[in-house]
Automatic annotation (TrEMBL):
Organism field: Marilutibacter spongiae
Molecular functions per Gene Ontology: acyltransferase activity, transferring groups other than amino-acyl groups
Protein name (record): Acyltransferase family protein
Transmembrane spans: 12-33, 53-73, 85-103, 148-168, 180-201, 221-239, 246-266, 286-303, 310-332, 344-364
Lineage: Bacteria, Pseudomonadati, Pseudomonadota, Gammaproteobacteria, Lysobacterales
Entry annotated with the keyword Transmembrane helix: yes
């Protein structure tokens, strides 16, 4: 496999989008760890622009990257994948994530919380389940935004087991999909599949991000991850995605406008007819895949090689991902006393989050003991060393 610089950019920008999205979560009416005093619905249509597809895109790119990692066989894959995903997950749950839960308790606990962070951290590590509001108790310890890591690890282990037990059938599925997805089927079939999954499951299973009971999310993310793995070497399918990029974009925009109209008109006080709800779910699934196809198609069309910016950003993505939500929560809560206008405060939060997270990366990559718990290799690759071919950096897995 040739290195896919287009997918390196897609992965980098998709993780960067998480910063924008999670800053937005502070200002909308949807539930989040901390909330702006000025929270309202103004940003919700813009948030909806990426809600259906941004995480599915990351799982698809991770599937392609996993195919690159497995190119020479599954030997050593479990150890490598576990080290790159589980060590940062454990460190994140013990050290990085607790401030999010602390400020959530400070803001949401009846009467507030006044014992200070260190006292809370001790109760967090002791799995104290007494932080409750109206019968809803905070689960501690938690992985919060790091839920992507255990999901990616679990999917990687399932793929590894499937390749050990049924390598032939897995290879043949990839070959057939590669032949099948050389025309409009590359747009239609995944869009219909994701739409049907949403129609059948989203109303029955709440999105929990708890791994063991998150059936709707598994039904959408695992197939997308496997699709990335199967299509990794399907050159003609990628050419078809590039060829149909204009149609993908146009149809994705149409489905997005339909979703905005639906959520702008219907709510709990004005529920839709069942058939309208089903059409909306189908439109959501269509937008989910068509947006991904458009992004992949235009990236493949525009990106033709490496660049200094990409060489810097690819290893920075993982540490920035681990740090970003905690940085947002801490900054946002402590900025409330300044009473800034949200249209000033929001861009400042975005800029400060990126700056602090990149500063954190610069610190982490210079301290050997911190590198593995932020997903980087023990020893950095000397600057100027060419990157080997072999697909995109294994999403949340590769680094200098």
């Amino acid at each position: 496999m040739e290195r896919r610089y287009d997918l390196d950019w897609v992965r980098t920008l998709a993780f960067g989008l998480l910063v924008l999205y999670h800053v937005g979560m502070y200002y909308v009416t949807w539930d989040w760890h901390v909330k702006s005093p000025a929270a309202g619905p103004a940003l919700e249509p813009l948030m909806l622009l990426s809600s259906p597809w941004r995480l599915s895109l990351l799982f698809l790119v991770s599937g392609v990257a996993t195919a690159s990692m497995l190119e020479h066989g599954p030997k050593g894959f479990v150890r490598l994948r576990s080290r790159r995903l589980l060590w940062p997950l454990l460190f994140g749950m013990l050290v990085v994530v607790p401030p999010q839960s602390y400020y959530e308790v400070v803001e949401k606990l009846p009467g507030g919380y006044h014992d200070g962070y260190l006292a809370f951290w001790g109760r967090y590590l002791a799995a104290d389940g007494s932080f409750c509001r109206e019968g809803d108790c905070l689960d501690l310890p938690t992985w919060n935004h790091l839920w992507f890591l255990p999901y990616l690890w679990a999917y990687s282990m399932l793929l590894w087991a499937a390749l050990k037990l049924a390598a032939g059938p897995m290879r043949r599925i990839g070959e057939r999909l590669g032949r099948w997805f050389t025309g409009p089927a590359v747009l239609v079939v995944p869009a219909l599949g994701l739409g049907l999954v949403r129609m059948l499951l989203v109303g029955r299973f709440e999105s929990t991000h708890a791994l063991v009971d998150d059936w709707y999310n598994h039904a959408q993310y695992l197939p997308v991850f496997l699709l990335g793995f199967w299509l990794a070497r399907a050159t003609q399918a990628w050419a078809s995605i590039e060829r149909w990029r204009g149609w993908s974009l146009a149809l994705a925009l149409c489905s997005y406008l339909a979703l905005v109209a639906y959520f702008g008109h219907y709510d709990d006080a004005n529920p839709p007819p069942d058939w309208v709800r089903m059409v909306q779910r189908l439109a959501w699934g269509a937008n989910q895949w068509l947006s991904i196809a458009a992004i992949l198609g235009f990236a493949r069309h525009w990106v033709k090689g490496d660049s200094p910016a990409l060489r810097y950003l690819v290893p920075a993505v993982y540490p920035v991902y681990i740090l970003h939500q905690t940085v947002i929560v801490v900054l946002a809560h402590n900025a409330q006393g300044l009473a800034l206008d949200p249209w000033i405060e929001g861009p400042l939060l975005v800029a400060c989050t990126f700056a602090l997270c990149l500063a954190g990366y610069e610190l982490v990559r210079r301290i050997p003991i911190l590198r593995p718990v932020f997903g980087l290799k023990w020893r950095p690759v000397p600057r100027g060393t060419p990157r080997a071919n072999g697909g995109p950096a294994a999403a949340t897995g590769a680094g200098r």
